[in-house]
């Protein structure tokens, strides 16, 4: 009896654990500030502050937004539309439901005028719905789905840094032209991975390449093992020139470690990564990734302007900025500039002010805020991880092979989108 | 055939981790009736221990393989003395919640110091590259893991079956009341056995460091599968947990290799098997259904 009962407890506990796993830290946070917009501007940073994406955006995105506010104050001084500018932040733990309720709380109870960041596509889409319903502004930075400017687009949502089309087009097309035609694609089997696989396959086909095999790996991959796919990649006929992995974060680390373990590079299968942040390279070490190509939305050591921002950022945080950090800084700056120009924080007026605007700043090069679908387009970069011997400075891990002009980097406005 | 053997081998390597972790859980559960959710966190600490020793003190992998499990055994024993044994008389759910809380604390402490990004760790020089196994080449490190894990499992089995300490532990595991009645001080063995279980988790962690992402959450997903493995093998059954560990590893690898059009199968197979086992053999494949007490 005791035994059977305990089996029940363990089975129930296992099921409970499935549901609650990964929910750690960052409980509900509310400070009951019911101030309504009026004289004050409040920027809300809603992102992952405890989980897998907390390093590439997380608390440091809040710091980036604070830097933008400080710069705005310094630039306009007494002429600023208001000096009362604050930041609120919340941890959505990459959960769509939590993102939804936190976004409502920010808009309704904390007087937030603009929500920034929001990684994880499923969470990002829920926040877009909230923005639409509340008629408040939302600049998505860290989510990848093109649905934000496709079937889920709306008047108050702008998509800022990157998307799956940009990644696939940059890496898929350029690498096919420059490195090899035959691809094996490995993707995590959920919305982001499936979306990436489709975008990559299309971009590879456009460049006259060929996808000789593709597999969806379990997500989350609890065993942490990718050897079945890696072994298969080496035996396909024709042999793929490239393994395109769409895994992100810790799963990407697992794939790369095992790619090296099975010595696929020596077997003639190169590595291309769908989505990678400088923080990933830092943790894997450039040696593990040497020669890997990927598309970057921004690189901290690209030019003097970027480097100056990166120096300031490092003073505040101890790390070099990822493109998401730079994009948060840029988005906050462009919003504040628009409020300054319009003399109001009325959302509809700001949308009119932003639409069609051409921008150049530390993040946006040849940037334009498209009126048709609110996609913010800008130059993107094809990057390659340097061999260890060429790394002379911590965090300076890649060289930029090519600049992809803004108009080519992003897709044309989607017919699915009506604002 | 070669492809089948390769994926079987890969399954056995994944299974080696399940088996080592399940073995520790089974030993702990058997002796203490504690469902140790913190087992995944000890596994994570094992991998971090190896990383920290190498990065901060230059301690090589081989030494870490000895030092880290010992350190975790001490930590495990301290936690058992300080917290866990206070709750063992109560419903198992209390200790489950306690160890779940411990997991969150341990994870967040590591996060605080090392962040959520994975930390780099390379295989030792002698185990890089691959070896020729006749039909195919296989990464040397994986061959080492498999051999090492099997050796550890056999060693534990030998210790349990052939030594006096083992016999006491086994008796206390399977019939604690009866063992007590025979005049054996079961309580004396509880803390060391808990430490032994956490040491096994730490050992698995050190072994995982060169081939898995070393980050604070690395144990969180894995432990769920390991729980399922323990249930499949039969709670508290030493042999069952090891057999189920290797079995589930292989089942996952085969599902990945031959049912790759349906990734959902590889993802859920362990839970499907668990459900089936609970349905037909509620005590697990190798567990013994006890007579009503």
Characterize the structure shown.
- The complex is a heterodimer of chains A (419) and B (293).
- Chain A folds into 2 domains: 41-162 and 302-378, 3-Layer(aba) Sandwich (Rossmann fold); 165-296 and 381-409, Response regulator (Rossmann fold).
- Chain A is built from 14 helices and 15 strands.
- In chain A, helix 12 (323-342) packs across helix 13 (347-354).
- Chain A has 419 residues and is an alpha/beta fold.
- Chain A has a 5-stranded parallel beta sheet with strand order 2-1-3-4-5, sandwiched between helices. A 4-stranded parallel beta sheet of chain A has the order 7-6-8-9, sandwiched between helices. Chain A has a 3-stranded antiparallel beta sheet with strand order 10-14-15.
- The radius of gyration of chain A is 22 Å and the shape is globular.
- Chain A has helices at residues 2-20, 58-76, 96-109, 121-134, 164-178, 191-206, 227-235, 249-261, 278-284, 286-289, 304-317, 323-342, 347-354, 406-409; strands at 41-47, 85-91, 114-117, 137-140, 157-159, 182-188, 210-217, 242-245, 270-273, 293-296, 358-359, 367-369, 376-377, 380-385, 398-404.
- The model of chain A is unreliable at 20-36 (pLDDT under 50).
- In chain A, helix 2 links the parallel strand 1 and strand 2 (85-91).
- With 293 residues, chain B is mainly α.
- Chain B is built from 11 helices and 2 strands, in the order H-H-H-H-E-E-H-H-H-H-H-H-H.
- Chain B has a two-stranded antiparallel sheet.
- In chain B, strand 1 and strand 2 form a beta hairpin.
- The chains are: A alpha/beta (419), B mainly alpha (293).
- The interface between A and B is large, with 56 and 71 residues.
């Amino acid at each position: 009896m005791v035994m059977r009962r305990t089996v029940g407890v363990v089975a129930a506990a296992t099921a409970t654990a499935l549901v609650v796993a990964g929910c750690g830290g960052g409980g509900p946070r509310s400070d009951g500030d019911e101030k309504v917009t009026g004289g004050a501007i409040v920027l809300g940073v809603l992102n992952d502050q405890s989980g897998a994406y907390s390093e590439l955006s997380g608390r440091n995105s809040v710091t980036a937004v604070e830097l933008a506010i400080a710069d705005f104050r310094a630039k306009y001084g007494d002429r600023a539309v208001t000096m009362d500018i604050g930041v609120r932040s919340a941890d959505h733990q990459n959960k769509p439901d939590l993102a939804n309720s936190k976004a409502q709380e920010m808009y309704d109870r904390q007087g937030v005028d603009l929500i920034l960041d929001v990684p994880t596509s499923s969470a990002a889409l829920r926040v877009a719905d909230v923005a639409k319903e509340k008629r408040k502004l939302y600049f998505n930075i860290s989510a990848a789905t093109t649905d934000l400017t496709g079937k889920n687009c709306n008047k108050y949502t702008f998509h800022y840094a990157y998307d799956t089309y940009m990644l696939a087009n940059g890496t898929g097309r350029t690498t096919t032209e420059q490195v090899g035609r035959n691809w094996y694609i490995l993707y995590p089997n959920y919305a982001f991975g499936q979306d990436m696989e489709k975008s990559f396959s299309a971009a590879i086909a456009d460049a006259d390449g060929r996808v000789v095999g593709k597999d969806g790996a379990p997500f989350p991959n609890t065993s942490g093992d990718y050897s079945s796919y890696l072994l298969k990649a080496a035996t396909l006929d024709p042999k793929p020139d490239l393994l395109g992995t769409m895994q992100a974060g810790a799963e990407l680390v697992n794939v790369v470690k095992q790619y090296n373990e099975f010595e696929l590079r020596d077997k003639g299968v190169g590595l291309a990564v769908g989505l990678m942040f400088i923080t990933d390279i830092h943790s894997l070490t450039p040696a593990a990734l040497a020669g890997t190509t990927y598309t970057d939305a921004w690189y901290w050591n690209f030019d003097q302007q970027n480097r100056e921002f990166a120096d300031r950022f490092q003073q505040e945080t101890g790390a070099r900025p990822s493109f998401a950090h730079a994009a948060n800084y840029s988005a906050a700056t462009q919003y504040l500039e628009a409020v300054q120009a319009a003399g109001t924080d009325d959302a509809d007026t700001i949308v009119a002010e932003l639409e069609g605007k051409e921008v150049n700043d530390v993040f946006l090069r040849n940037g334009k805020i498209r009126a048709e679908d609110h996609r913010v387009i800008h130059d993107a970069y094809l990057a390659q991880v340097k061999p260890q011997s060429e790394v002379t400075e911590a965090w300076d891990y890649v060289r930029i092979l090519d600049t992809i002009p803004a108009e080519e980097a992003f897709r044309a406005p989607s017919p699915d989108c009506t604002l | 055939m070669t492809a089948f053997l390769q994926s079987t081998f890969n399954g056995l390597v994944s299974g080696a981790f399940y088996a080592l972790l399940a073995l520790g859980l089974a030993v702990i559960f058997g002796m203490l009736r504690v469902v140790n959710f913190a087992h995944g966190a000890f596994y994570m600490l094992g991998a971090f221990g190896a990383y920290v020793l190498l990065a901060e003190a230059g301690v090589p992998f081989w030494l870490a393989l000895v030092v880290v499990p010992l350190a975790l055994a001490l930590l495990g024993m301290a936690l058992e003395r300080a917290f866990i044994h206070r709750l063992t008389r109560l419903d198992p759910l209390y200790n489950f919640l306690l160890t779940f809380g411990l997991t969150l604390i341990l994870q967040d402490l590591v996060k605080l110091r090392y962040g959520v990004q994975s930390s780099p760790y390379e295989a030792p020089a002698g185990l890089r590259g691959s070896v020729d196994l006749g039909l195919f080449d296989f990464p040397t490190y994986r061959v080492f893991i498999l051999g090492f894990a099997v050796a550890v499992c056999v060693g534990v089995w030998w210790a349990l079956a052939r030594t006096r300490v083992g016999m006491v532990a086994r008796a206390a595991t399977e019939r604690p009341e009866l063992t007590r009645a025979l005049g054996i001080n079961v309580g004396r063995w509880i803390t060391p056995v808990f430490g032994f279980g956490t040491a096994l988790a730490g050992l698995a962690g050190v072994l995982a460091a060169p081939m898995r992402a070393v980050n604070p959450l690395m144990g969180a997903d894995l432990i769920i599968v390991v729980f399922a493995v323990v249930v499949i093998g039969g709670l508290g059954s030493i042999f069952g947990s090891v057999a189920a560990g290797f079995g589930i590893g292989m089942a996952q690898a085969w599902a990945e290799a031959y049912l790759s059009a349906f990734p959902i199968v590889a993802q859920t197979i362990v839970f499907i098997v668990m459900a089936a086992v609970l349905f037909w053999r509620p005590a697990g494949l190798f567990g013994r259904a006890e007579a009503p007490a």
